[in-house]
Each structure stands twice: as C-alpha cells, then as structure tokens.
Specification:
The chain has 408 residues and is an alpha+beta fold. It has 4 domains: 11-64; 69-120, Roll (SH3 type barrels), CATH 2.30.30.140; 134-316, Rossmann fold; 321-407, Helicase, Ruva Protein, domain 3, CATH 1.10.8.60. The chain has helices spanning 134-138, 157-172, 174-180, 198-209, 218-221, 228-241, 266-280, 321-331, 342-347, 354-370, 378-407, and strands spanning 11-17, 23-28, 33-37, 49-53, 56-59, 69-77, 81-86, 89-94, 106-110, 114-120, 141-142, 187-192, 212-217, 246-251, 288-294, 312-316. The strands form 3 sheets. Strands 11-13-14-15-12-16 form a 6-stranded mixed β-sheet, sandwiched between helices. The longest helix is centred in the last third of the chain and has 30 residues, at 378-407. It is globular, with a radius of gyration of 24 Å. Mean pLDDT is 82; it is low at 1-8. Residues 184-320 form the AAA+ ATPase domain. It comes from Streptomyces brasiliensis. Residues 387-408 are annotated as: Disordered. This is ATPase AAA.
C-alpha cells in the first residue's frame, strides 16, 4: 500500500484497474478519490469494495458500501459532466439527460454517480431560509470527528501553554474559578498570518476540554433576510450556554465585525451590536469561551477589544527553524522512511507557515506514488519541498504584479 488516510480501515470502491494490473483507482464514501499501487491488487475488479490492510487492499463485504443521499448546488455545466458544490466541496458527476440542469439549481443525488432530481431552481445555502430553527444552529456545530491531541500542534510550546491557560483551564475549572471570584475569560483573539495553526489549536483545545465546538465564518453567517444574521448569532450563543462546556469560534472575524462608522454597512453594524450583546449577556454559570482569529486585528471594531470581550490575545508567529523541524517531523505520513533530512528542509523554509510545510508531504507522496514506491523517501521529500517552493515563488510574483496594477 502506498498511502493511507487518517481512519481505521476506510472503505473504498474500485473505479478502475490499470491494464498492467499494478494499480487501482478508488473512491471513498465521502467522495474523495485516490490511486493505490500494490503487489496485491491483481485480483481486484472495477466495482469491488475494499479496505486497507497491511501490505495492500483486501476485499470487503458489498453491504459495507452504503450510499447516502446528498444535496448540492450546480456550479458548472460541461458537455458530459457537471460540477456540484456539496457542503463547500466541489464534486464532478456525469451529466444526466434527465433531470435537465441549470447553473444554480439545488439538486438531490445518491452516491457518486446519480443526480436524482432538482429540489429548487435557485441555490439553497445555510441562511437562505427566513426562519432560524435548531437545525440551522446545528449547521454550525463541528462534531470534530476524532480526538485531537496537543502533540499534533508543532511549533511554539509557549503558544500552547498560553492557550491552555486562557481557554482550556477556564472551561475545565469553571466552578472553582467562580468560587474564587475570578472574572471569567469570555473572549480570546488568535492573531497571525494565515496557515499558522490558529484553527487547528482551537480544535485541539475543544477536543481536549470536551467542549462543544461552534465554527462560524463571515460568509456563512451573512443572510439576505433582515435581522437573520443577528438572530443566528444570538441563538448560537444561547445554545452554547446550555452546554456543559462550549467554544464559539469565529474564523477571520475582521470580515464580520469591522470598525463601525458612518460609511460602514448597516448589516455589519447590526452584527457587531449583536456580538457585543451576546458576549455581555453571559451569566455566571455560563461555561463558554469565544475564540476569534484574524490577521488584521486593527480592523476589528474597537468595542470588541474592551475588557470583558476579546481582551486577551495570543499571537501566532511564523515558526522558527527548530519549530519548522518539529512540524515537519510531526506531520510526516506514516508511510515514510526514517532518517529524512528534516534539519536541511527546515533551514531552507524560513518564513514558511505550518500549512506550507505540511504541503511538502502531499507533494512528496504524489512523487512516491507516481514512481511506484510505497514509502516516501528522501528524494520524494526534497522534490516535495522544491515543488511547494516553486508554488510560493509564483504566488509571490503574482502578488507583486497585482500590487503594481493597483498602484498604477
């Protein structure tokens, strides 16, 4: 087996077997796809249900493959294919002769190959409906899916220690702090460049503290219905206050709660007002911490930075060389040889974010698979670094050109 995913014996279906009988194309129940090479795939056929076992793929019972219905929005129509947005993930399906599809249709389908019917001529999103109910609020609850560990966060130990003090400890010892008479910590602002691990650390803390995790971004919360965005925020905070422990997480809050002024949009002013009211409305028994991320803290409304709101801040700097070496080692896939040159790659990746460092492994895995290897070797690792480095350079040049266009 050349690669594996973070799940115990994931079930997949064979979609193609190469003519040489040395590789198979597979798809998972969630729609992800992959290519696996192994000495033990010669007896597999298209349509077989398989699972990952040490050394290769093994057949699984047919009844383990249970297709579930989905709802999505048509984004692109091609001659033989259609691109559909399912919960923020773009998927490609064969274009059916029936039903007739148009861009923007909300459709229902089954599994990976069947589009069954058009539910609406228009796209339906989280907040396109006028009423806010429990199902609407459940859309913002992130089940996390697995237990996260602090060992997964490579980088500054000081960041982890401070986050545990400000967030995990108040959630775990809420009653004890209340008995002492300490002022509760309501909001913590995570600042730093994109890709520095802000969202990851919030998930880890929620997992370790056993807290219900609500994840909210600006585009999700915006609604065409007057007052609905504020109502959703209010209901999320009410729902969170009913949990034993909860974290309400706002991703890139500067896009949602900008400085209020005479020129700012009325909807933005109302949302900031609702955030202020919700955070100020915490009762003593409420065990909720609000976390918000931003790389532009200066753009957040001043009122949200006052005591009792987001008055605590943790900055996520770009990792140092030793941090980078640790991130590379911790994020290495299981299918890698030992003794890879982490110090060398760490030295060559100054000013790289953790997300960019992790991307090296994706490129390295592709190089290993396409060359017929089951494990990532040093040459794949170095090649992965070179590929990501080239991508960063292209992005840098594109950004410089964009700035020149704006200044011109």
């Amino acid at each position: 087996m050349t690669w594996e995913i973070n799940q115990t014996r994931p079930i997949a279906r064979v979609t193609k077997v190469t003519a040489e009988q040395n590789a198979v194309h597979i798809e998972f129940l969630n729609g992800n796809t992959g290519v696996c090479t192994s000495d033990y795939v010669t007896d597999l056929d298209v349509g077989d249900i398989v699972y990952f076992e040490e050394g290769g793929l093994e057949r699984a019972p047919e009844d383990l493959w249970v297709e579930t219905p989905w709802v999505g929005v048509v984004k692109l129509l091609l001659l033989d294919e259609v691109v559909i947005d399912i919960g923020g993930n773009m998927r490609i399906f064969p274009r059916p002769s029936e039903p007739e599809l148009h861009i923007g249709n909300t459709v229902q389908g089954m599994g990976r190959g069947v589009i069954e019917r058009v539910l609406s001529e228009d796209p339906i999103r989280y907040l396109d409906l006028p009423d806010v109910d429990d199902h609407t609020i459940d859309q913002f609850k992130d089940p996390l899916g697995r237990e996260y560990s602090f060992d997964e966060f490579g980088g500054s130990k000081q960041i982890v220690d401070r986050a545990r003090e400000l967030i995990e400890a108040p959630l775990r010892y809420h009653k004890e702090l209340e008995e002492i008479g300490a002022r509760p910590i309501k909001g913590v602002l995570f600042t730093g460049d994109p890709g520095t691990g802000k969202t990851m650390l919030a998930r880890i803390i929620a997992s370790q503290a056993g807290a219900t995790f609500y994840q909210i971004s600006g585009p999700q919360i915006m609604s065409k219905w007057l007052g609905q965005s504020e109502e959703v925020i209010r209901r999320i905070f009410i729902d969170a206050s009913q949990q034993k422990r909860a974290i309400v997480f706002f991703d890139e809050i500067d896009s949602l709660a900008t400085q209020r002024s005479d020129e700012s949009h009325e909807a933005s002013r109302r949302i900031v007002g609702q955030l202020l009211a919700s955070m100020d409305g915490f009762r003593p028994e409420t065990n909720v911490v609000v976390i918000a991320t931003t790389n532009r803290p200066q753009d957040i409304d001043y009122a949200l930075r006052r005591p009792g709101r987001f008055d605590w801040e943790i900055h996520f700097p770009l990792p140092t060389q030793s941090d980078r070496e640790e991130i590379l080692a911790k994020s290495a896939p299981k299918g890698t040889i030992t003794g890879l040159p982490h110090p060398l790659v760490a030295e060559k990746t100054e000013n790289w974010s953790p997300a960019e460092l992790v991307a090296i492994w994706s490129e390295a895995a592709l190089l290993a698979v396409t060359d017929g290897r089951r494990r990532i070797q040093a040459e794949d690792y170095i090649g992965g670094h070179e590929r990501v480095s080239a991508q960063r350079e292209r992005k840098r040049k594109e950004l410089e050109l964009a700035k020149q266009d704006v200044s011109a």
